Amino acid sequence: MSYARMRECTINRAYHLLIGLMLIAVSVISQTVYAEELGYPEKEELKFGFIKLTDMAPIAIAYENGYFEDEGLYVTIEAQANWKVLLDGVIDGQLDGAHMLAGQPLAATIGFGTKAHIITPFSMDLNGNGITVSNDIWQQMKEYIPKMEDGRPVHPIKADALKPVVEKYKENGKPFNMGMVFPVSTHNYELRYWLAAGGIHPGYYAPLKGDISGQIDADALLSVTPPPQMPATLEAGTIYGYCVGEPWNQQAVFKGIGVPVITDYEIWKNNPEKVFGITAEFAEKYPNTTVRLTRALIRAAMWLDENDNANRPAAVKILSQSNYVGADYDVIANSMTGTFEYEKGDKREVPDFNVFFRYNATYPYYSDAIWYLSQMRRWGQIAADKSDDWYKETAAEVYRPDIYTTAAKSLIAEGLAKAEDFPDFATESGFKPPQPEFIDGITFDGSKPNEYLEKFPIGLKQGDEV
């Protein structure tokens, strides 16, 4: 190589190195400027709680992928014994926030059970639950399942097939016991919805009379069992079926003790599941921290769904660790990677069994909150009539799309997210269009909750009290 050519190459290398250093400098400066605009976190050290379920994944991924640290947040994550302990921990400040049942912030804010103003800026997922029955109950149900295809049941399986079984138990004076995870859990309302759609009364609550068993007039008696204990309780014969999140339906299949008969995707397509809950006081005291933790969770949800769930095997490996869900890799992967096994060997493609980001899964819609409130009223947890305006105002007290929008817009501005992956924030009302995709064919319009409640053959309506 000639001296002139060598000199030219050296100059080019120096030029590109200089350009690279300038770009890095600009990036650092712009990030610093943006951080100042967004606001530095007022509280950096945080402790979050969760229950051992696969839908806690956004918290685990935000931690493992360093998204919390990117926001200047130094987070400790701790599994909690049950949903009540978790909620109490957030209320008394032992936890700064937590993976929560969607009904928990709403129930606490209106004073059902515990009274505290809890809010959510982030919806954690869609779908993810199933209803499992014991092997014995499944054999009895099979007789009443109307269609079989290639020797396999045609899904969705309605509770119509369970009704004759429940009636036999009643005729013989035996209670038909089923489990759900908490009185204001999605699982309670989904199990009740499925049972009632099949003509099986799941019972009423009467809080004003001091009866919060939820078993008044019930054909099937529902009671609380913590999620990880569901399979063992089923195996012991204490309950004949349950509604729970993963991996505890698939665990019953792996252990050979039960059969999941339906997923919540089949009860209500793309239903909202868990939320991230914090106190209203926390959000007011630490607004920058709140936006920043929401940013981290959004990024985690995006990662979980990107490239057609390509990251799910890596997520399953993380979740199978004992400090997170702690179930076997294969058990978690059975649903988390886009399949679901019903009866042993009957594995089917269910790509949307777990949804963490697509379909605007992370946006806290008012209409989602109103559905939960409508079910609280339907089964007597809300003891008296409420106006449509009350439902809307209560939803707006708890679900905070304003915080979410700030977080999402900042991610878009930084090039960490795309605007087309979010709702149109300029026009978004917080209400989804009417949703017809329920197992009983009844359409839910979040703007008309009282009209919605009138449509159900089983359940409280205007003027009814228990």
Please, could you describe this protein's structure?
The chain is an alpha/beta fold. The protein contains 19 helices and 18 strands. The chain has helices at 3-38, 57-64, 67-70, 83-91, 103-110, 135-142, 163-171, 186-197, 230-235, 248-255, 264-267, 280-285, 287-309, 312-319, 329-336, 366-378, 388-398, 401-413, 449-453; strands at 45-50, 74-79, 97-101, 118-123, 126-127, 129-134, 148-149, 152-153, 177-180, 204-206, 211-216, 221-224, 241-245, 258-263, 274-279, 339-341, 347-349, 354-355. The protein has a 5-stranded mixed β-sheet, sandwiched between helices. The longest helix has 36 residues, at 3-38. The protein is globular.
Question: What's a concise summary of this model?
Answer:
This protein has 19 helices and 18 strands. The chain is an alpha/beta fold.
The largest pleated sheet is described as: 5 strands, mixed
Total individual domains:
3
Distance between the termini: 94 Å
pLDDT averaged residue by residue? 92
Strand order, biggest sheet?
A: 2-1-3-15-4
Percent of residues in beta strands: 15-25%
Which key features would you list for this structure?
18 strands, D-Maltodextrin-Binding Protein, domain 2, globular, alpha/beta, 3 domains, 17% strand, 19 helices, 5-stranded mixed β-sheet, 466 residues
